[in-house]
Amino acid sequence: MGPEMQLRRRQNIACLTCKRRKVRCDAAEIALPCTPCRRGGLECSPSHKRPTGPAPAPAPAPAPAPAARPRTTVSSTPTATATATSHAGTTHAPRVLPDEDAPYPPETETETETAEPSPGPGQSKEPAISTSLSSFVEQGITNSEWKLFSGSDPLRLVYIGTGCSNLATLVDNEQPGNNTILFPFPAIKQPLPWKPKAGVLPFSVSNDLLHDVGSVPEREVRDALVDAYFRHIHPTFPCISEPLFRRQYADPRNPPPLILLQAVLLAGSHVTDHPLVAGARSTVKSTLYRRTKELFHIRYENDRLYLVQAALLMTWHQENADEVSCNTWAWTGKATRIAFGLGAHRELSSRGPLSMPAWDRRRYRFTWWTLFHTETFAALHFGRPCSIRWEDFDVSDLTSDDYLDPDDNADPTIRRDCFELNIALSYIAQDAMNLFAPRAPRLSTGTGTGTVSASLSSRLASLAVTLPSGDDGFSCQARLNYHLVLLHCHRTNRCDRVYVDVDVDEHRRSEALKVRSEAASAMLSILEIMLAKDYIRQCHFTCNTALMAVVVQFIEDVKLAIDANSIILASGAHAKLGRVIGPAREIARYWPNAEAILKMCQNQHEKFGLVIQTYVNASSPHEIESVPVGVGVGVGGASDGFLKDLCSAYDGHDFYFGQDFGHSYEGADYGWMNMPSFASN
């Protein structure tokens, strides 16, 4: 056997730590500890595997490994086996969050054994789906206790629907006059361990996938991502409770649900400035997104409210350029359907004999209002129907009693002014979108569309005096959302042009154009402030909506000015279009689809610059000899070039529909992310 074959075999021998972490190990080439273990401060233990063939030359004596904390294992002590019951009464199997030195659970059977939750007297070990409805009729409808079915059994909440549903009619027949809409229901699924493992799920899942979804970054990175989420996102996106999550996160025996932890890490990776993550942000986000998405798809969580919260947090990532079946539009749709099924859209107050605990009502209410705002702005972004209509929910407005932590102390982690402003803007945005609906009444019918528009303007004017004036990131985002809705409310319905005489309606159109131009200028100024103060990374997907609205408006302003032979106005609008490039380039770093808007903006800025320069150089606007290809002088003349730029922006290899955003794993050491072997090959 030649020396090359001996070297190849020696390189295949990894230390035990690197084998568990699935990272490349150089223990066979250098003295212990190996490079990954030395960098991570981990214990480097040699593998018991021995190469075949001639023995290699003796290596120098290994240096002593750095001291490491003892690994913690899951034992069968009472603390480890005690079940944790949530506020809503859902019982979970024991959970153990991996510590810094043990990113994966022990591999031996004796170390991973935990006691199964014992079934209560009213329920067998296997939840009986066939008898759950009978148990609900016999116990659930007439019971006034929130926790029932023996108290320690898993609990499932059921929303019986409106009065036209079969379940609501059944309840009314059993208890006429009972106005309760949310009932406890016998569980139909077994409690789940914190990490998925083979045999737990009712279908086959590969071991690689199970290992991947249960992996988390090293403790230092994990802490940085959690802190980044709660510092830069949570105050205006409070779909989960920070005090509760941090309490669970600090308790290794009762950590937060795995899907929620992965989702928080994903959102945190969008905004963190941790050097390891910032240097490979797209790769880290893609990895955490994959883990969260797989947990969601295999429904590895019995509490459906956690699924709603995880879906909302996944809107902080763009998987690819498909904005129909992926990304924000798809995730808000999934979250809305689950929330409707849970009854989160209903007023969960103390009506009826069953009173939901105050803390659970707060969880539901904050999740609902976060979803309402996110779904509305997603519909506004794409001009598509909103899944949440105001007539379909009766959740009351938030009050001071809602801004409390699980111990009923004031929760200062939420920016109430900005959050409630976003909710108010969502109501206005929905009314504005209704004016553009396919069956909305047209101006020719005389049904008062102008009156509705005037009402929207009045409501926006009343909100203007409440806008936060600070230059912090959350205040800037709130003002950005305000001007975004203001601009959309003053857009002209394209269908109205068929029915309305332009001369008759010229004044209204001219006034709307001025408002749109002022709103676009205000948004540009806000984006420039956010760029200067490094707040762009805190922006949700609505920054893409604002960016696109600004570019479209300035293009319209330039074309109208050129058409009116007003070179001064055209030059001013053209200069604003050029100023958009800086913020657009920064937004594209965090939201890859913004690259398309950036490219369109750059192309249109260059083309309009040539047109304006041609006008300036000519003795008269009517003596222009040639106009750059793709740019016309009239209002509609540039539309072909505009659409071509918008569509061609997706021609790059990173923007194919279905092509995931993110970088290759090849040639980089991501051991701190605990990536499985199938993701790194």
From TrEMBL:
Residues 68-94 have a biased composition (Low complexity). Transmembrane segments: none annotated. Keywords: DNA-binding, Metal-binding, Nucleus, Transcription, Transcription regulation, Zinc. It holds the Pfam family Zn_clus. One of its GO terms (molecular function) is DNA binding. One of its GO terms (biological process) is DNA-templated transcription. This is Zn(2)-C6 fungal-type domain-containing protein. Residues 38-135 are annotated as: Disordered. Residues 14-45 form the Zn(2)-C6 fungal-type domain. CDD domains: fungal_TF_MHR (cd12148), GAL4 (cd00067).
